[in-house]
Amino acid sequence: MNSLEITKRMVYDQVLNYVHLSEQMIESEQGNIFQYAKELQLQSIPRHLTSVHVIDCIGNNKQINNTALAERMNLSKANITKISTRLLEEGFIKRSQLNDNKKEIYFSLTAKGRQIFELHEQLHKLEEERFMQLLEPFAEAELHVILRFLQNVSSHWANKETE
C-alpha cells in the first residue's frame, strides 16, 4: 500500500472509532440528563434522547407545528407525530390553535417541559464549551478542511439512508 492508501485507511479507522465513541457519548448524555434530573428532583423525564431534542426544538421555536418540527429536526412527520403524542400524554408539551386557523396545531412547552428544556440547554452549553476548546489548536484553514470533510461524510451517510 502506498502512503495515500495508508492515510485513507487511517482516516476510515478513525471515522469508525468516532461512530462508536459517538454512540457511547449519546448514552452518556442521556445518563447525564437522568442524573441531573434526579438531582433537581424532577418527577419525570422522557426516556428517549430524541424526545428531549424535540422538547429542545419546541422550546427554541415559539408555537411550532408538526411540519416545521419535522423539517428542523430532519425527521419524518410520522416520527414527530409519534413523539409529540407521547410528550403530550406525559405532560411535557401542550397543543394550541390560533384563533384565525383552527386547522393548524401548534406545540409549546408546559412547565414540566420547560424544566427539561432548561436542563438540556445547560448540558449543551457545557458540551459546546468543551468542544470549542478541542478546536482551539487548529488554524482556520484546518477547520475549513475538517468542516468540508464532515459535511461530505454527513452527505454520504444521508444519501446512503435513502438508497
UniProtKB/TrEMBL annotation:
<dbReference type="InterPro" id="IPR052067">
    <property type="entry name" value="Metal_resp_HTH_trans_reg"/>
</dbReference>
<dbReference type="GO" id="GO:0003700">
    <property type="term" value="F:DNA-binding transcription factor activity"/>
</dbReference>
<protein>
    <submittedName>
        <fullName>MarR family transcriptional regulator</fullName>
    </submittedName>
</protein>
<dbReference type="InterPro" id="IPR023187">
    <property type="entry name" value="Tscrpt_reg_MarR-type_CS"/>
</dbReference>
<keyword id="KW-0804">Transcription</keyword>
<dbReference type="InterPro" id="IPR036388">
    <property type="entry name" value="WH-like_DNA-bd_sf"/>
</dbReference>
<dbReference type="Pfam" id="PF01047">
    <property type="entry name" value="MarR"/>
</dbReference>
<dbReference type="InterPro" id="IPR000835">
    <property type="entry name" value="HTH_MarR-typ"/>
</dbReference>
<feature type="domain" description="HTH marR-type">
    <location>
        <begin position="12"/>
        <end position="155"/>
    </location>
</feature>
<keyword id="KW-0805">Transcription regulation</keyword>
<dbReference type="InterPro" id="IPR036390">
    <property type="entry name" value="WH_DNA-bd_sf"/>
</dbReference>
<dbReference type="GO" id="GO:0003677">
    <property type="term" value="F:DNA binding"/>
</dbReference>
<keyword id="KW-0238">DNA-binding</keyword>
